[in-house]
């Protein structure tokens, strides 16, 4: 399946380039990507039942061994997720400060139709230090409050309908913990139903994954066909793309394995060092560009890595929602890039606010393609750079590629954390 999926990526790029060369109409581009759209709709339809069932089963399984087991695991998971995300932010800030990809770059002629209009508010803008501080405080506070509201939803059904996965996960955790807390005689019938549903959902997912090569081919072809003048975009954004790619590669290839070795003191080499065992999940993450949609494959890879099923079913759905290493790194790096682009100098305090807000915003981002661009508005506001938000429209021209790279890092971080725990 991995080989077929990667072949679908290659064929999709070639097909998309051919279609792009014919100057296609919007309807033609829509038809090219339509099979992929149906595939994504199928996966997203399965994500919600997968998360609810697996989280409840995971909590019940962990609690069955000892009363403190689930609590210890949850504490370690949350701590590891927070640490890896903050380290990713710090790495992104370091790399962008050294490489300075925003110096000498102009978006005035980047080859994208209508891009100049998106950047019309940036000329000659200036903001006082007091305004920056007020905006930073308000943006960070808004990010915290927004994430808390998403987590504590007043209506679980509405949260599920609105795609508020964080609220669904919190509700599922509470329900699983309640089942584990009541007597076994009371909980047993309900627990049996959830474990049976888990088997049924996994079967449905196995059927859906057989369609992945065709779906991925269509998705990639549609995105490439819809891209504006790729050459001109890469000339304008080449250094930025290279900086983001290097930072993500450094985190995924060096920082995460290093943190894993430090956390386990060199133990569990098979689980942490199983590059081949992680490859299907990472390849799927790059291909379909969604950590939630990749979750079925991630769970399979966790089994081959030797991670206990109950732990995997608890940690990985949680990680797919709140452990966004790649997204946090990308948002922090990109906000500094935008500041460099317009010659805005940021102090240490504002930089710290950017790191913290990027981590919080990444938690609140939906695990779907390009969600990081939406939550980046929160970070820009926190940094007092909201007036330059028009630049995000230009960055979207290369985000179809960069988002795939950060999704790979997101999924890799989930597997490393679960392996370490």
TrEMBL record:
Name the record gives this protein: Amino acid transporter
PANTHER family, per database record: AMINO ACID TRANSPORTER, SODIUM/DICARBOXYLATE SYMPORTER-RELATED
Any one GO CC term of the record: plasma membrane
Chief localization: membrane
A Pfam family of this chain: SDF
InterPro entries: DAACS, Na-dicarboxylate_symporter, Na:dicarbo_symporter_sf
Homology family: Belongs to the dicarboxylate/amino acid:cation symporter (DAACS) (TC 2.A.23) family.
Assigned keywords, A-Z: Membrane, Symport, Transmembrane, Transmembrane helix, Transport
UniProt key word Transferase: no
């Amino acid at each position: 399946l991995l080989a077929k999926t990667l072949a679908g990526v290659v064929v999709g790029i070639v097909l998309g380039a051919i279609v792009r060369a014919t100057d296609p109409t919007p309807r033609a581009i829509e038809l090219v990507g339509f099979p992929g759209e149906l595939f994504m709709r199928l996966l997203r339809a399965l994500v919600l039942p997968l998360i609810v069932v697996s989280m409840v089963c995971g909590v019940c399984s962990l609690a069955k061994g000892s009363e403190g087991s689930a609590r210890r695991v949850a504490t370690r998971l949350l701590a590891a997720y927070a640490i890896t995300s903050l380290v990713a932010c710090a790495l992104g800030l370091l790399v962008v400060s050294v490489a300075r990809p925003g110096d000498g770059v102009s978006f005035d002629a980047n080859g994208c139709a209508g891009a100049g209009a998106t950047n019309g508010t940036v000329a000659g803008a200036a903001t006082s230090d007091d305004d920056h501080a007020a905006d930073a405080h308000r943006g960070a506070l808004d990010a915290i409050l927004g994430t808390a509201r998403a987590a504590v939803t007043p209506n679980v059904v509405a949260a599920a309908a609105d795609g508020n996965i964080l609220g669904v996960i919190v509700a599922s955790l509470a329900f699983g913990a309640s089942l584990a807390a009541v007597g076994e005689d009371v909980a047993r019938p309900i627990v049996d139903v959830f474990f049976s549903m888990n088997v049924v959902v996994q079967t449905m997912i196995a059927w859906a994954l057989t369609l992945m090569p065709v779906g991925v081919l269509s998705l990639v072809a549609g995105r490439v066909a819809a891209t504006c003048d790729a050459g001109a975009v890469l000339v304008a954004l080449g250094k930025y793309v290279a900086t983001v790619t290097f930072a993500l590669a450094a985190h995924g290839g060096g920082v995460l394995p290093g943190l894993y070795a430090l956390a386990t003191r060199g133990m569990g080499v098979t689980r942490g060092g199983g590059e081949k065992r992680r490859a299907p999940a990472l390849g799927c993450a790059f291909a379909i560009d969604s950590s939630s949609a990749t979750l079925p494959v991630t769970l399979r890879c966790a089994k081959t890595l030797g991670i206990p099923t109950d732990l995997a079913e608890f940690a990985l759905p949680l990680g797919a929602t709140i452990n966004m290493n790649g997204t946090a790194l990308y948002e922090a790096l990109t906000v500094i890039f935008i500041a460099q682009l317009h010659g805005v100098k940021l102090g240490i305090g504002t930089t710290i606010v950017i790191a913290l807000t990027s981590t919080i915003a990444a938690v609140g981002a939906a695990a779907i393609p390009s969600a990081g661009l939406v939550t980046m508005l929160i970070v820009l506001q926190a940094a007092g750079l909201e007036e330059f938000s028009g630049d995000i429209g230009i960055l979207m021209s290369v985000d179809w590629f960069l988002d795939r790279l950060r999704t790979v890092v997101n999924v890799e971080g989930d597997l490393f954390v679960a392996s370490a725990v």
